[in-house]
Amino acid sequence: MSPNYIRSFSEGCLRPPTVIGQFHTLFFGSIRMFFLGVLGFAVYGKEALHFSCDPDKREVNLFCYNQFRPITPQVFWALQLVIVLVPGAFFHLYAACKSIKQEDILQKSSYTGFYIFSVFLRIVLEVVAFWLQIQLFGFKVNAIYMCDVGALEKKFNITRCMVPEHFEKTIFLIAMYTFTVITVILCVAEIFEISCRRLGFLKTQ
């Protein structure tokens, strides 16, 4: 791929054709990633080390932590961010290969339809991620986790485990839910902005 294609692709990703799309990129690319990368590491970075059960033995702690966290929230949210970026990246890669300028995307129906489809696909992926997050993490992190250690052939099948910094994790969960809702709202608003531009209610950039 030539440098011109790479430059067009990067400009398209960083500067979408709509005002709301540009705000979405700013919100998505800076605030959400910063929150996950910096604060997420502070909250979840050493969770496995501080997770302890009764009896406090390495094999029990490790077994119960894997049961408590089938996937760590950091990994899940990082995958979510990458997957949600894919539809827009495909569109801007297509635009770069076809030498489509950003200001021309909203002028031609086929380009506009393709772009709206990529935005709609982002909405679907965010909603699916929202549902999966509920299934995996719920809305609250309890201080005590009851672990089934029957597979370890222990005398007692259920043991109590202490979840470190459970209140901070609850706040972080709510924040990530909020970010997902905000990005979905921004995507819906972007489709509305495109419709208004196509109908002539707003001036095309």
TrEMBL record:
GO terms under biological process: cell-cell signaling
Record-linked Pfam families: Connexin (PF00029)
Membrane-spanning intervals of the chain: 25-44, 75-94, 114-134, 171-192
Coiled-coil ranges per UniProt: none
Subcellular location: Cell membrane
Organism field: Acrocephalus arundinaceus (Great reed-warbler)
Domain of life: Eukaryota
Lineage, uppermost ranks: Eukaryota, Metazoa, Chordata, Craniata, Vertebrata
Topology in membrane: Multi-pass membrane protein
Protein name: CXE1 protein
The keyword Cell membrane appears for this protein: yes
InterPro entries: Connexin, Connexin_CCC, Connexin_N, Connexin_N_sf
Keyword Transmembrane helix recorded: yes
SMART domains found in the cross-reference section: Connexin_CCC
